[in-house]
Specification:
Elements lengths: L10 H11 L2 H13 L3 H29 L3 H12 L6 H28 L11 H13 L2 H21 L1 H30 L2 H9 L8 H15 L5 H6 L8 H28 L16 H7 L4 H34 L4 H23 L12 H28 L2 H8 L3 H27 L1
Bound molecules: phenylalanine (PHE).
């Protein structure tokens, strides 16, 4: 592989991987999951999953990508060949690349919605902003054409960035987008903490109610950890191939995980105080928390519309830098597999994803009554990817690196300090593998 596809300096890989990790999962999903699952007890389980499972699995993914220097599928193939293990391990890459396209199809629908909210300014002098907000959200979800418009726009931007290439497209855009994202999240948290009800937020976040921890809550905390860190589907593995040779895997992965977790917690600090400041609003609103509840909260606050715009720009940026990483594994694979130009591959993939996304859009309206096992099309995709494909991908990565590959080979190539390596292998081999397996079994029963 030529060096033209390796990012220069240490920061681009960190920004790209953090860009992949920080997304709707942190700013939209995390706060509402904390809100509906009992607050800080959920956060504690989530943090344990991040450290015990997320950290070792992410380091393993970066390792495979960096070693193979190809798309996840071909990196796995190369690894298998050189260590004399079964070539079937490449299917792990195929499963991941597919999961990426499936996730992107509905991810882009929600990202498009957030995009549209940048331009959704409430008229002044509303008598009942709550009713207005609910009606607005309801109308939006019942208008397939409007949703298709925003879904298409978001996807076109995603495809353009990936189509331009690894260095000039993905590398350059994360260098511009991520600093804006970090600035906005800090700005919003300061605004929210100073204008909203910080006390109520802190007592909500720091007084854990462990009775709310049912097995289902633990499962969703683990699923959320996978989704939020972008692990289990090869996005981080694909980026690992573009990491500079000298960059240290251990430190880098720690930085990415820290950034991802900080943004999720900051998102909580940006959202909860302003929701708590309005006694009519509740943090247990579920998925509608940022689309229905939050705009009402902003409405009653000083400079609320400005900060509402900043908030939705923030989400759109976060979603964009994740969306490109969902498309990259499949694109990189196709690029190696065929003579077709990257731009054309991306256009083709984009069309497939766009088409599939329409199914998710219809789940809000004309297909809302079509259910399979009690789930509509969107819920089915969400379940298939988050509860099955990502944990399965993560489990196999952990088995591959922890159990199957020769220990000497991993030690020599991953270049961790001796003690860190021991801890890494211990966690991967027993804790990560064991807990994903158990939770996975439970989720299937
Ligand atoms: N991590 C992203 C988020 O938090 C979503 C994602 C999942 C991106 C898997 C890439 C791969 O929103």
């Amino acid at each position: 592989m030529s060096n033209t596809k390796i990012w220069r300096g240490n920061s681009t890989f960190i920004l790209a991987a953090a860009g992949s990790a920080v997304g709707l999962g942190n700013i939209w999903k995390f706060p509402y999951m904390v809100g509906s699952n009992g607050g800080s007890a959920f956060i504690i389980v989530y943090l344990v999953c991040i450290l015990a499972i997320g950290l070792p699995v992410m380091a393993s993914e970066v390792f495979v990508g960096k070693y193979g220097r190809k798309s996840p599928i071909n990196s796995l193939k190369k690894l298998a060949k050189e260590t004399n293990i079964s070539e079937y391990w490449k299917f792990l890459g195929i499963l991941g690349a597919l999961a990426g396209l499936l996730i992107l199809s509905y991810y882009s629908v929600f990202a498009g919605m957030a995009f549209s909210y940048i331009f959704n300014l409430f008229p002044s002098d509303l008598e009942n902003p709550s009713a207005y907000s609910s009606a607005y959200f309801f109308d939006l979800s019942k208008s397939p054409l409007v949703l298709i418009f925003w879904h298409s726009l978001f996807l076109v931007i995603t495809c353009l960035i990936v189509g331009i290439g690894v260095v000039k497209g993905i590398g350059r855009s994360v260098n511009v987008l991520m600093p804006i994202l970090f600035l906005f999240i800090v700005l919003l948290s300061i605004y929210s903490a100073s204008t909203g009800d910080l006390d109520a937020t802190l007592s909500f976040l720091f007084s854990p109610d462990f009775s709310s921890l049912t097995p289902a809550v633990i499962l969703s905390a683990m699923g959320q950890a996978f989704f939020s860190l972008s692990i289990g589907m090869g996005a981080i593995m694909a980026y690992g191939a573009y990491m500079p040779e000298k960059q240290h895997i251990g430190k880098t992965v720690l930085t990415i995980i820290l950034l991802d977790t900080l943004v999720a917690l900051f998102a909580g600090i940006a959202i909860f105080p302003i929701v708590f400041s309005n006694s009519f609003l509740v943090v247990t609103a579920g998925p509608g928390l940022i689309f229905e509840t939050l705009p009402v909260a902003f409405y009653s606050l000083p400079m609320g519309s400005l900060f509402s715009i900043i908030f939705f720009i923030l989400i759109t940026i976060a979603a964009l830098s994740s969306a490109i990483s969902l498309l990259e594994p499949f694109t990189a694979w196709m690029e190696e597999l065929s003579k077709i130009k990257r731009k054309n591959i991306v256009a083709l993939m984009g069309f497939f994803v766009w088409f599939l996304g329409i199914g998710s859009i219809f789940s809000f309206n004309i297909w809302s009554d079509y259910k399979f096992m009690g789930l509509n099309f969107l819920e089915l995709l969400d379940y298939l990817t988050n509860n099955i494909m990502l944990p399965l991908g993560g489990l196999f990565v952990a088995i591959l690196i922890g159990w199957v590959l020769p220990r000497k080979f991993v030690r020599k190539n991953i270049k961790l300090k001796e003690n860190s390596f021991k801890v890494f292998i211990f966690f991967l081999k027993y804790v990560s593998t064991g807990s994903i397996f158990l939770v996975f079994l439970y989720s299937l029963t």
